[in-house]
Amino acid sequence: MKLLNRCLLQRNLFLLLVFLGIGASIYTLTDLFQRIDVFLDAGMGVKMVLFYFAVKLPLIISQILPSIFLLAMVLQLSLMKKNREMVALEAGGVSPVSMIRFVLLYGLAWAVLQFAFAQGLGVAGERYSSDIWQNEVKQRGADFFAVSDLWFSRGEYVVNVKTAWPERERANGVTVYEFSPDRSSLRRTYKAAGAATGPGDWVLTGVHVAKLADFERFDLERLTLPIKQDLLAFKTFEPKATPSESSLGDLYGSIERLEAAGTNVDTLRTELHRRFAYAASILVMGLLALSIVNSTENLYLGIFLALILTFVFYAGSSFFVVLGESGTLPPHIAAWALNVIFLVLAGGQMALVSLRTLRHKL
User: Which of 6, 64, 207, 341 is the most exposed place for a label (fewest CB within 10 A)?
Assistant: First the structure.
């Protein structure tokens, strides 16, 4: 390893560890203050609370790493620029391409580490902390496991369920579309407030019936339909396990099983692509750091811009994930859109700075 790269690596690792410690502490304290009343009401001891946050720590680190990487890189490069180290490097024959290469390779290494860490300890930590929260704090059993936005077909019926509890054999927000035997026309629609499910007939309650042939509409308190679909077939995760608490293998398997059953899997696909995109965002953050430092020589302004971009990154990520889960955008586009936007902005800014520098030299 070159002396320059070793020096850059040592400085950034120091700043990264410091920021990680500060960020994880702020995250943990904020989470503690939000949950302290619940912990006290549940009679949780200090050891159990500490254990809860200890198992959650890998998840916290994996979540804040992209923003921490951005802040650490901006501070390091800004200090080098302020101390005229950048000028000295250029005078010594070190081209800006060398700095970009270092940032890209260093960011790639951290992206791989973040992905492995998040899918290993991060997923396990989230699962354990969720288990503690549900069983030790909230005192909730496995029958609280819920499945959302189910679509499936059985015979002449196509069914959409807003929320279902497989172990309870209950469902809310049920819409049933009844087709002709040859599936050539839609005969009736049934919209029910709730339903008693099971492997046999379903009993719908609070039903609004619409007969499309004669435009007749009426309401029924109860209606039995021979849907014959046991919702336990859609329980692909362990109790209380959400997509974010599942490994990549579980996600791939769940997507295949649910697709085969005719169920909407946009949420799972969005989560799957989001994991890869989130790790890759560290590379983008490195380029953003270079573009910020090239834009201003003011250290404080650079940190401020990094904080603003961090806020935009997390808010934008949540926004695009919602679009992907709702089916408004394809899951892969929703997961990668913000990375592409930030990459274009960073690349465009760096290209403009390079053109200005070239013009001045000419």
Answer: 6
- Alpha-helix residue ranges (DSSP H) falling in 202-265: 248-260
In the predicted model, is pLDDT for residue 88 greater than 80? no
- The set of long-range contacts for 48-56, using a CB threshold of 8 Å and a minimum separation of 24, is 48/132, 48/136, 51/132, 52/129, 52/132, 52/133, 53/28, 53/129, 55/124, 55/125, 55/128, 55/129, 55/132, 56/28, 56/31, 56/125, 56/126, 56/128, 56/129
Cα(275)–Cα(115) distance, integer angstroms: 7
DSSP string, 122-159: IHHHHHHHHHIIIIIIS---GGG--EEEEEEEETTEEE
- pTM comes to 0.69
Q: Which of 207, 198, 153, 205 is nearest to 179 (CA)?
A: 153
Does the structure show a pLDDT above 50 at 237?
no
For residues 246 and 235, the answer to whether their CB atoms sit within 8 Å is: no
| Distance of alpha carbon 357 from alpha carbon 362, whole angstroms | 9
Reported in sequence order, the residue ranges of 212-359 that DSSP labels E, i.e. its strands, are 216-225
Per-residue pLDDT tens over the stretch 302-350: 999 999 999 999 999 999 999 998 889 999 999 999 999 999 988 888 7
Distance CA 213, CA 61 (A): 58
CB 132 within 8 A of CB 55: yes
Burial class (CB in 10 A: 0-12, 13-18, 19+), 203: middle
SS3 352: helix
Residue 227's φ and ψ, nearest 5 degrees, are -75, -40
Question: pLDDT band at 247, cuts 50/70/90?
Answer: confident
DSSP SS3 for 202: strand
- Rounded CA-CA distance 247/22 in Å is 28
CB-side exposure of 307: number of CA atoms within 13 Å? Answer: 8
Token pair recorded at residue 264: 């909407």
Domain boundaries, the chain: 3-139+267-361, 146-234
Contact present, 317 and 338 (Cβ < 8 Å): yes
